[in-house]
Design a protein that fits this description.
about 450 residues, alpha/beta, Alkaline Phosphatase, subunit A, Arylsulfatase, C-terminal domain, 2 domains, 10-stranded mixed β-sheet, 12 helices, about 15% strand
Length: about 450
């Protein structure tokens, strides 16, 4: 325990000697895992109590048209960290333990957000789920973070043992360790410690807090489940477990926000909250009125909650229908921090929107893509492209393409592919162009991805 305490202290107290000449904002980016579009009180859930995320939404700007770059974990996280479409940085699918079921390898030349922010002397922490590489060259501290406390892998088979396929992917920096406790509580504690360590420091900080919750297994602490069941005895066991897991995460996030306030950091800290993809329907997730959920390129798989709070800059209580996606967070943080992002990125800043200014749409078309294995996809891809109100998708590599007008048909119920051949041809051409670009970037490592190389 003494060794672990020393390691944690050493990681959290690394400070560069030269303070920034100006005072760019601190940034906290919190990403939930598989949080459904409708699974927050502020997003319409009537059986859920999420006072802390709700408060963040009320104190900042809520995006009602925000999209994850992909309907599964690793690709969206790659976009968050690089500002690029995931396939352009070698992560078109989920990064996993075993080489024969691994569908991504983050490219070495990608400039991750903590590396970019070093231009302004940011001190960067990564806490929680990484899921962007298991090999030493792709761990958080090798990709720009000053400190890392968390889980390298894709999912935990148990929130208390933290194992995946029998492997321990918990790390304190480069050191494997075995902490006790529910993963959500551990990530909360480490994030609070990271925030508190910045009290009185001149250098700005960037905290990337990635909870495993509410990803499967749906395993809330027993006292949180009991609280939900007592409040609503008629709720199904399946739904109650997911509600409890989300409410438990909300409580942890609230502790992080309290640490920001009590450390005197609130006024100069941007807090962004979002999810990596839609909720998983077969475990009781609620994606509101949207069609389908996680793993799908229908709206329920890619449309996610998002809000931004920045006191004194972002008007409290605002809602916007301005459309943005995960990779745009990278460019927005860069703009707010006064850092020029790499020219190659596809992400675009929505800073003017959160500052209350008019802004043109970020891109002419929007592309969503997922490569995956298993019996369902067989190494094939699914994808969608959006142009204006029109969306062309193929949600099964062996199924037909579908065309919807989302303005008239937000539930994606009326396939117009036979009636609007002109629109189909336009979007199909855009789809081909994007797939060709994706195909130019390797997504496999030269050796199997293992945690102990």
């Amino acid at each position: 325990m003494q060794r672990l305490t020393f390691l944690l202290a050493a990681l959290l107290l690394i400070v560069r000697s030269a303070p920034a000449e100006d005072h760019p904002p601190n940034v906290i980016l919190c990403v939930a895992d598989d949080l459904g579009y409708g699974d927050l009180r502020c997003c319409g859930a009537t059986d859920m109590q999420t006072p802390n995320i709700d408060r963040l939404m009320s104190e900042g700007m809520q995006f009602t048209e925000f999209y994850a770059n992909c309907p599964v974990c690793s690709p969206t996280r790659a976009s968050l960290m690089t500002g690029r479409y995931p396939g352009m940085v070698g992560v078109p699918g989920v990064i996993r333990t075993h080489a024969n079921n691994n569908w991504g390898h983050l490219t070495a030349d990608s400039v991750l957000l903590p590396q970019l922010l070093k231009q302004k002397d940011y001190h960067s922490f990564c806490v929680g789920k990484w899921h962007l590489g298991l090999e030493p060259s792709n761990t958080p501290q090798k990709r720009g973070f000053d400190g890392f406390m968390g889980f390298l892998g894709d999912m935990m088979d148990d929130y208390y043992t933290h194992l995946r396929h029998g492997n321990n992917y918990m790390r304190c920096g480069p050191v494997t360790f075995d902490p006790e406790g529910h993963a959500t509580d551990l990530f909360t504690k480490w994030a609070v410690t990271a925030v508190e360590s910045r009290k009185g420091k001149k250098e700005p900080f960037f905290l990337y807090l990635a909870y495993n919750a509410p990803h499967t297994p749906i395993q809330p602490p027993e006292d949180w489940l009991a609280k939900v069941k007592a409040r609503d005895p008629g709720m199904t066991d399946r739904r109650a477990k997911l509600v409890a897991l989300i409410e438990h995460m909300d409580d942890g996030f609230g502790q992080v926000l309290t640490a920001v306030d009590e450390s005197g950091l609130r006024d100069n800290t941007i807090v962004i909250f979002t999810s990596d993809n839609g909720g998983q329907l077969d475990v009781g997730a609620n994606n509101g009125p949207l069609r389908d959920g996680k793993q799908s390129v229908y709206e329920g798989g890619i449309k996610v909650p998002c809000c931004v709070r920045w006191p004194g800059h972002v008007e409290a209580g605002g809602k916007t229908q301005f459309r943005a996606m995960s990779m745009d967070i990278y460019a927005t943080i860069a703009a707010a921090s006064g850092v020029a992002p790499p020219e190659v990125i596809e992400g675009r800043s929505f800073l003017p929107t959160i500052l209350g200014k008019e802004q043109d749409e970020l891109r002419e078309h929007w592309f969503f893509h997922r490569r995956e294995g298993g019996t369902r996809y067989g190494g094939k891809t699914i994808e969608a492209v959006r142009w204006g109100d029109w969306k062309l998708l193929q949600n099964d590599p062996f199924g037909p393409q579908e065309l919807y007008n989302l303005k008239d048909d937000p539930l994606e119920a009326n396939n117009l592919i036979e009636k609007r051949k002109d629109i189909f041809q336009k979007l199909a051409a855009l789809q081909r162009e994007e797939l060709q670009r994706y195909g130019s970037v390797p997504w496999q490592s030269n050796k199997a991805a293992t945690a102990e190389e």
